[in-house]
Design a protein that fits this description.
Blueprint lengths: L2 H17 L3 H30 L7 H23 L2 H12 L7 H20 L2
């Protein structure tokens, strides 16, 4: 089990009593947005790093196209991964360990914080 599985289960269990059927979709959307924001942060970091090193790697238009394609892949991968047997395996493993609880407000603010860092890094010259 990796960190994203633990975060998925925490979001899933938080929304399960309130939104019964939609809790899985909410947790998948959360994990996908978090992974895409981390992907964007890495992309902006490497773009700025390569710019400082005076390397011409790819244009901004191609980079955005690559990001959109990678984001689509991330959403599809998470949809396939967390709707099948993997979610049941995560559920049984997490029931054995009850010490993997995170603060829900920190989890919900995590993608916003990552996007804020991305924006700051994007504006830096």
């Amino acid at each position: 089990m990796n960190t994203f599985d633990i975060l998925f289960y925490n979001i899933f269990t938080y929304f399960k009593p309130k939104f019964k059927q939609k809790s899985n979709s909410i947790a998948i959307a959360y994990i996908s947005v978090l992974q895409c924001s981390l992907l964007m942060l890495l992309g902006v970091f490497f773009a700025r790093f390569f710019n400082q090193m005076n390397m011409s790697t790819m244009s901004a238009e191609k980079a955005w196209t690559l990001f959109v394609l990678a984001s689509g892949f991330v959403f599809f991968k998470n949809w396939i991964q967390y709707t099948g047997k993997k979610r049941m395996m995560i559920h049984t493993r997490m029931n054995k360990r009850s010490n993997w609880k995170y603060n829900i407000w920190l989890l919900l603010l995590l993608p916003i914080i990552v996007l804020g860092l991305t924006f700051i890094l994007f504006q830096a010259t």
